[in-house]
Design goal:
The complex is a heterodimer of chains A (175) and B (189).
Chain A (H helix, E strand, L loop, with lengths): L7 H11 L2 E6 L6 H8 L5 E4 L4 H12 L3 E7 H4 L7 H6 L3 E6 L12 H13 L3 E5 L5 H15 L2 E6 L1 H4 L8
Parallel strand pairs in A: 1-2, 1-3, 3-4, 4-6, 5-6
Chain B lengths: L3 H9 L6 E5 L3 H8 L6 E3 L7 H11 L4 E7 H6 L2 H8 L5 E7 L2 E2 L5 E2 L8 H8 L3 E5 L5 H9 L5 E6 L15 H13 L1
Parallel strand pairs in B: 1-2, 1-3, 3-4, 4-8, 7-8
Antiparallel strand pairs in B: 5-6
């Protein structure tokens, strides 16, 4: 069980350090920002900003082929972009880990976020990605740790869905 | 225009021990396999568009190796943004050779965007890869070899090729897990 520290993003960062994850790619999301900032301050972690989430799948697989572990951070809207790319870790049995900040579920304001929010678990399951879910801050560290170990020990793809209930639904104001 | 199959074979003949070769879907994979089986090769047979990001991940992880990607214009056009990612996370040991035949030869030779108005060298330069150039003849072999082994990358070379179908030359295995583990053993050894 990973200890809970001041912020659940700190717990994810600790898992990265514990498991020697040294590359983090992302299309940014506000929910991931504190974690991205932590990784950018760490000289041992390469942080790579992508132009589309799917490139993080190939990037992660290439890094693994070269002997490094990595994680892909994205928002749920990016999961759909990854479908065909997920064939790569699947057919090659390369460990693949992604952390997905959820939109379109708990108290969502923007209707456009809902379709991919609803589709995210279905898309991941369709591509044989094992889904782990964290709904509460206290369980983030242990859930990411479990997902990462599942991926790297069994050579499978794993996704952690970080719930919008936990991240907080932003309420937008016009004007 | 370059005859791609013998050109790729020539590049891979007498390859140096520090070279690892990746190929994108799909004719590029048959091209590198035609040069002879080598554990230091990994060829995509699917996941179109992922060869460039894969090669970036590999190159950043193995800075002492030279990483050479052969891929096609179709595969490259599917993930143009990955060129920007390479440019902004530069790796010195990566050369991308786009075997640009301006067509989807494997599916019936439909024209790609590069048969029209799109110039991948300009796309690459505009994406931030300053070392991008186009070759149109086998006479540029020495220049390309220098880029692959000596120059500071990342580099992208557009090799304008004849659009003709070539025989399929299959890899050691179609099983991706066999292929990647074999390739990884060439890095560990």
């Amino acid at each position: 069980m990973t200890a809970v520290t001041k912020d659940w993003r700190d717990d994810i960062y600790k898992v990265f350090k514990d498991l020697d994850i040294t590359m983090v790619s992302h299309v940014p999301d506000a929910g991931h920002t504190p974690l991205i900032n932590l990784c950018e301050k760490d000289n041992e972690i390469d942080v790579i900003t992508l132009t589309t989430e799917q490139d993080g799948v190939g990037l992660s697989c290439g890094a693994y082929a070269g002997g490094r572990k990595s994680a892909l951070l994205m928002q749920s809207s990016g999961v759909g972009n990854c479908i065909n790319a997920l064939a790569l870790p699947n057919i090659c049995r390369i460990p693949f880990l992604t952390l997905v900040s959820m939109r379109g579920e708990w108290g969502e304001f923007i209707p456009w976020q809902v379709p991919m929010g609803l589709g995210t678990p279905k898309v991941l399951e369709a591509m044989d990605v094992k889904i782990f879910r964290a709904d509460y801050k206290e369980e983030v560290g242990s859930t990411v740790d479990a997902a990462a170990r599942f991926a790297f020990n069994t050579n499978r793809s794993a996704a952690v869905l970080l719930s919008q209930k936990m991240i907080g639904a932003k309420q937008f104001k016009n004007g | 225009m370059i005859d791609r199959r013998p050109f790729v074979q020539k590049i891979l003949k007498n390859r140096k021990p520090n070279l690892r070769v990746i190929s994108g879907l799909g004719t590029s994979t048959w091209d590198i396999m035609s040069a002879g089986d080598n554990t230091g090769n990994f060829g995509f047979i699917g996941a179109m568009g992922q060869a460039i990001p894969f090669s970036l991940g590999l190159a950043t992880s193995q800075p002492d190796l030279r990483i050479l990607l052969f891929t096609g214009d179709g595969d490259t056009l599917m993930s143009l943004g990955s060129i920007a990612t390479v440019a902004n996370h530069p790796v010195k040991n990566l050369t991308i050779v786009v075997l640009d035949n301006e067509s989807y030869v494997e599916t019936g030779s439909q024209p790609t965007a590069t048969a029209g108005k799109t110039d991948l060298e300009l796309v690459s330069k505009g994406s931030g890869l300053s070392n991008s150039y186009t070759i149109r003849s086998e006479n540029d072999y020495d220049k390309l070899i220098n880029t692959i082994y000596v120059e500071e990358g990342p580099s992208l070379v557009v090799a304008k090729c004849q659009a003709k179908a070539t025989p399929l030359v299959f890899p050691h295995s179609f099983d991706g897990s066999v292929s990647i583990n074999r390739f990884m053993s060439s890095i560990k050894s």
